[in-house]
């Protein structure tokens, strides 16, 4: 697997890589039932970020949502549209999407270049162009030296990169990535993120990313939908969250901690225990001066005061109802 | 200049053909399958040669009957060869797509399940055509040139039976091998299952027809159903006459069952219940 800087992408500037101005995904009461169980329950959302992350615990419906958008599952009720085209609109939509599935996905007995070429042809490229693009995509993904090997001989990391290469070979407007960094070691994970970042920033490819890795979502996405038990628990504009001056401090006090917490809460802080420290939040208004005043009133001393940005982890845990 | 791309199902068919031809055993069997038409042609040449006929003591009208017998035997051999080739090559083009999760990669493209099945069936049928109806019709054309002037006019139905019978048979074989491969996923198991299904159906059909004294029951066997359709044209007396409509129904039932199995098993995403 090649390391180093991300090489030229398989895209060219004449492509309509931006994906237009249509919302990435629009869901209108989307309900999906599988095996007698409601997996997505009347989901309504409009996701128009350049890169949208799907978060949620196992079984929340992330993969089912992706598969429904790809047309693999038929909705029991409601509607969905991707890039402005209704789901199920056939070839027109399928050509605009590149899909990287979560699980192992290859066809044994085929070389990397032959597999990617075949998939490019299925996306509407003629034989010669498909071959050229397959080579470009594999070299771009760092599989240039392995492209003539049969894919069953690839390592787990190489198979992930192969899945990415096949997803971009036809130059889609939208890249749907389902757990792309699964089973990758740190260098391979970094490489994968760099490749996706490069497509997003340089080629204007829009991204729908499902991942358990919060740092990956935080790095790649500007909008996040958090799913919980088949419903959207939160839809966040990450960029706006980052801009918002939401106060978050981690405080350590000596003395009567409970009295300090009560006094801080009385002046408008949200107070929660976080290990040996207190996690203090304020949506505006009170700041560190009020915290010191609360300590004075209760005869405690602030030993440590650390300002923090509300991380995606905090937002996620709050949406899951797991934040104390 | 941008070249025209193939429709997705034709792309599937093209790669299926290449995949089957990549197998050494399949290629060997394929070459062997071209032997019966060659032998048939040699026999027809003998039948058309007046000095040889005289030496063998065959008279004029008997030569025509012998030619028909050659076509009957050729049809049977070609049908058998098609079965062997389908069993050898068919699982190779479906099992690998299913075992390692390759199917979602295919179905995320502008290719539906019907297109996938069309492509695979088309690939098998295209590859079997030269060793079945393709060479069969070639032999018929050469026989028409070799035998007496009026022979071809009186035996147009033979050409129709070769074409129609083999197309139906190869379509059934293709669907059956795809369905068994999709069902069990393992290549060897799929080959065994296909052979088992045909043997069991043929045995059950023959036994129940004898026990219940009803010839219709023989049509449970797919090869017998096809044989019943081509028998009148090929002058066969092995299959009772008048079974045509029932044979069509039996063939259509087999096709429907295979398609139902394929639609149930070929899913881009499996649902865990």
Shape of chain A: elongated
- How far apart are the termini of chain B? 51 Å
Largest sheet of chain B: none
Helix percent of chain A reads: 25-40%
Approximately what portion of the residues of chain A adopt beta-strand conformation? 25-35%
Supply the CATH architecture of the largest domain in chain A.
3-Layer(aba) Sandwich
Give the topology string of chain A: H per helix, E per strand. Answer: EEEHEEHEHHHEHEHEEHEHEEHEH
Chain-averaged pLDDT of chain A: 87
Count of DSSP-assigned helices of chain A: 11
Q: What is the C-level CATH assignment of the largest domain in chain A?
A: Alpha Beta
Computed CA radius of gyration of chain B, to the nearest angstrom:
21 Å
Oligomer: heterodimer
Number of distinct helices of chain B? 13
- Distance, first to last CA of chain A: 44 Å
Uncertain regions spanning at least 5 consecutive residues of chain A: 13-19
**Most extensive chain interface and residues per partner:** A-B, 36 and 32 residues
* CATH domain fold name of the largest domain in chain A: Rossmann fold
Number of domain units of chain A: 2
Overview of the molecule:
The complex is a heterodimer of chains A (324) and B (273). Chain A folds into two domains: 13-240, Rossmann fold (3-Layer(aba) Sandwich), CATH 3.40.50; 245-319, 2-Layer Sandwich (Alpha-Beta Plaits). Chain A is 34% helix and 27% strand. Chain A has helices at residues 62-69, 91-94, 112-122, 127-140, 156-168, 186-202, 214-220, 238-243, 257-266, 288-298, 312-320; strands at residues 25-34, 37-47, 51-55, 77-82, 85-86, 97-100, 174-178, 206-210, 223-228, 231-237, 247-254, 270-274, 277-282, 301-307. Chain A has a six-stranded mixed sheet with strand order 6-7-8-3-9-10, sandwiched between helices. In chain A, a hairpin with a 2-residue loop joins strand 9 (223-228) and strand 10. The longest helix of chain A has 17 residues, at 186-202. Chain A is elongated and about 80 Å long. Chain A starts with 24 loop residues before the first strand and ends with a helix. Chain B is mainly α and 273 residues long. Chain B has one domain. Chain B is 79% helix and 0% strand. In chain B, helix 2 runs antiparallel to helix 5 and helix 10 crosses helix 11. The radius of gyration of chain B is 21 Å and the shape is globular. In chain B, 44% of the residues are buried. The interface between A and B is medium-sized, with 36 and 32 residues.
